[in-house]
Design goal:
By secondary structure, the chain is α+β, with helices and mostly antiparallel strands. The protein is about 25% helix and about 15% strand. Belongs to the TonB family. Pfam families: TonB_C (PF03544).
Length: about 240
């Protein structure tokens, strides 16, 4: 059966093509309208003109300046040398050599004064020749044994007199108190310095050190000297 309408005469046959062609022309015209530029042939309207009166133009004045001449250097006359006669003859001193001669007498050893060594007033515990001696350590044979005995008795003294402060227990305070004291020349304890986490712990450490017995003083070359000693006291709650 043949169709009644001719497909070549269909109206919607090329509608999509016509639509794209029309859109292209519209976009092209819009682009040309946006990019269109115009130019002014005469631009004298924005250029300023300045007219200067000829009467105001002055000729540059030429000045002649006279430069002063530089000062002439002063030439001093040479000093006059006068020759005078010698009034008296000058006798030159004879310089004697400082080296000893083989004929020089040798002094006796007993007549020569020997300078005494200056012993410091205070020497640390680890550097002193004879460390302080704790009571009960006098019979130790060597110096090392006496030092070990001193430290051992110090720990025993701290454990024996140790009391935990009540206020520190209530507040839950604990820590280490660094104690530094000096064994004086007479064996007494002095110059106590404390540093700890709380004042109550420092007071307890000071009380323990104050109960130390009188010690035998430290000696350097047989002379009593002051000896600083440091020891930590630890406060710890169980």
């Amino acid at each position: 059966m043949e169709p009644k309408k001719n497909p070549q005469l269909e109206v919607k046959r090329n509608s999509l093509l016509y639509f794209f062609v029309g859109m292209t022309l519209v976009l092209f015209m819009a682009y040309m309208a946006l990019e269109w530029k115009t130019y002014y042939q005469d631009n004298s309207w924005d250029v300023g003109e300045l007219k200067v009166d000829e009467d105001l133009i002055e000729d540059a004045t030429i000045l002649k300046l006279k430069i002063p001449e530089p000062p002439k250097p002063k030439i001093q006359a040479p000093p006059k040398i006068e020759i005078t006669d010698d009034d008296e003859d000058i006798v030159e001193d004879v310089i004697k050599p400082s080296e000893t001669d083989q004929d020089a007498e040798i002094a006796d050893v007993e007549s020569i004064d020997v300078a005494e060594d200056i012993i410091p007033e205070e020497i640390p515990f680890i550097l002193i020749e004879n460390a302080p001696v704790f009571p009960g350590c006098e019979n130790e044979k060597t110096e090392k044994d006496k030092r070990d005995c001193f430290q051992e008795n110090m720990l025993k003294h701290i454990r024996k007199n140790f009391r935990y402060p009540d206020i520190a227990k209530e507040m839950g305070l604990q820590g280490r108190v660094s104690v530094i004291f000096t064994v004086q020349k007479d064996g007494s304890i002095g110059d106590v310095r404390l540093k700890g986490p709380h004042e109550s712990l420092e007071k307890e450490a000071a009380r323990i050190i104050s109960k130390l017995p009188k010690l035998q003083p430290g000696k350097q070359r047989g002379t009593p000297v002051k000896v600083p000693y440091s020891i930590p006291i630890t406060f710890k709650l169980n």
